[in-house]
Probable dual-specificity RNA methyltransferase RlmN (Cytobacillus solani), 361 residues
Amino acid sequence: MEQVTAMKQSTIDQKPSIYSLQLQELKEWLKENNEKAFRAEQIFDWLYTKRVTSFEDMTNLSKQLRDRLESAFTLTTLKTIIQQQSSDGTIKFLFELHDGYSIETVLMRHDYGNSVCVTTQVGCRIGCTFCASTLGGLKRNLEAGEIVAQVVKVQQALDKTDERVSSVVIMGIGEPFDNFDHMLSFLKIINHDKGLNIGARHITVSTSGIIPKIYKFADENMQINFALSLHAPNTELRSRLMPINRAYKLPDLMDAIRYYINKTGRRVSFEYGLFGGVNDQVEHAEELARLIKGLKCHVNLIPVNYVPERDYVRTPREQIINFEKTLKNHGINVTVRREQGHDIDAACGQLRAKERKEETR
Ligand code: SF4
């Protein structure tokens, strides 16, 4: 294992990804290199509208500028290792990064369009007890460009059928607020009208509850959708499911959520995974209703897939319906998330965990 790690580190390419740059940053780089600033928009057009795969293809730029770009930046930062398609159209991608680590990205099909779920870290250190992504710990943060490149890669796959990525959810592997600056940079690039031009209201970020970053995010006042992985209606149960709750306790977390709602005027989504016999009883639904009473919010109930490395089992269908009904009786907006990709390792981190097991055999 030590040898593998050493080899991975020695192959790290030091050049930054061009997808990490905001339009303004690219303009500044061009000026420093005695090039006209308007070239930045041409380059963005090649990157995000024409979606070329080499600097050489940027044919309205001089050869000298293409060579400069080539020596300063990387363009192809992700290599597709696996592309698995489910019977419902969901596609899971396993990408290899320049240093040999692998990450997952998922394309989901909805009536309202194509949604991409991106990864923000290699692994995760949050330690949620139901999550396969945390098993190997955190290896490193992704650069903004590595997150942007996931959306570009999926869009390139969709280009073949003339389809478009219409929404993005930051709910893949990793805790986005643990990689806050790169996540913010990513959001700005995909939202920019000269970038991927994905509307703010079609972007959702989800956190496990890093309180200081919730305040910081609220102060950014971006009009994107915000979700909290709640999963439990009280401190004791939440600490059991999500160790982060020991550092950032539920009452303080709810204060941060109230701050976010007041500051942005936006609704919060509470993600609530249903774990058989753990947090899925009617009493839990009653307690949850009391916890979020009066908040501008919505609850997403997620019947959790069985995770082979963990002990959790699925909640029976009837129990899901009872839970939903209880919340509705309290006037709470609630939906049960439709499962996607059930036949292709759909839970967060499963594909990567499986790969890792095979790698280490
Ligand atoms: S659920 Fe999300 S935050 Fe929790 S361990 Fe998994 S990847 Fe990290």
Observations:
- Residues 1-12, 341-361 have pLDDT under 50 and may be disordered.
- Residues 168 and 254 are 25 Å apart (CA to CA).
